[in-house]
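Input record (one chain):
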Amino acid sequence: MSLKKKTFWGGIWNSLSSVSLTGLNFTITAILARLLSPNAFGIMGMIQTTIALINMMNQFGLSPAIIQGENLNQKRLSSLFWFNMLVGILMTGIVFFSADLVALFFNQNSLAPLLRLISIVFTIVSFSFIQQSLLRKEMKFKELFNINIISTISYGIITIILAVNGFGVKSLVLGYISKNIITTILIILFNRWLPSFRFDFKEIRDLLNFGVYVFGSSILNYFNRNLDYLLIGRFLGAEALGYYTLAYKLMLIPVRKIGGVVGNTFLPAFSQIKNKPKSIKKYYLKVLQLISLLTFPMMGGLLIVAPEFILSVYGENWIPVIILVQILSITGALQSLGTTVGTILLSQGRSDISFKWNLFAVSNLGVAMLIGMNWGIIGVAVGVAIFSFYSFWISFYITGSLINMSLLDLVKYIRKSFLYTLFMMSIVYLTKTYLVSPNIEQLPIQLAVNVTTGVITYAFIFLIVDGKEYFNQIKRLKNVLK
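The corresponding structure, as predicted from the sequence alone:
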């Protein structure tokens, strides 16, 4: 199969995976929000910082190195496997024995036993790390889709059953461990590569040299994405973090999944044409345009209907989340595009720039949140939004310089999505204000009317202005793939 066909079907499967997982996680979170308290979500938010560390540390920057790497023979892969296993076991020990210190940092004594329990995941995921990277390198996204769907459904069933039976926050921890066990088993079944019992450091030195910058960037990116959790949990408490965690899951995880589709699909493809910056620029701008067409209306619409949405889906216990969702909608729209920056940097072999960028981002984000903390979680959300706005332009200026893409090129490709979204938001706001009754007992009906209005309005203006062009592009794509 040609690279173009692999990329196309990879995009289809990754998109399907993103939509399906977003829907599943939304449903699971909505059910759990009715069963668990904001305090429980806050404690899980503290644990989430460890989970994020698991996902980052255990790779040691090697996944992009494997996708980029050549001559991946049995000896090299086996050496990588045993090196990664060593890292996983080491991280399990570090988290297990430092659990009391983490609990002390957050001033939550109940955190320590939960951290010791979840530390085993470091070792669990090490067993399937190489196999998962190979599936991505070979662009076998259908298999990864099946794995993610099965493991997420299993996680939802296990966690909800435990929550119903009074396990509280422990249900979230046990559900997460179960999910990773199931994922590991499925990955090994779908890619039955097995390591040899040998290790040669010389075989992986070049991959580690590339990975060390990715690893450094990952550490900085970890603080970039979790500094808000750390500061809110430490200084504002579990309940405040619970509200922020729900808003964060609701707003940023879906758009990051959409951006993740680009990373998972196009990093292998862009890596194969890394010496053709004009081709990368052409396809990258179209990808950014497509992402903006999807995420801008999602974020703009949710900003308008946040009160009806939160009260209808999660209940009155979560009213403080409304203003957080409205503020973070700005961040969500920008980050849906910003999450693709790393794909270009890594495809060009510039993990060093990624490291330097993340160093800049962490320091600036930390300042923004520390200032905002004077006004509580709302101030932190505002700080995150402000940082996201100005860092967005800087990151694309740096990335564009590698593929001869200007900021004007970027604006040209996303401006229609922005204008369509503004028009849709205006219509939904007018409908909400003047045509729908504000009766609190009819909130689900109001939500349904507003969402339907938004979808119809956005689809209408898109089809009128751009429909013909996109239908022609689909026809050309069909002809290419025949």
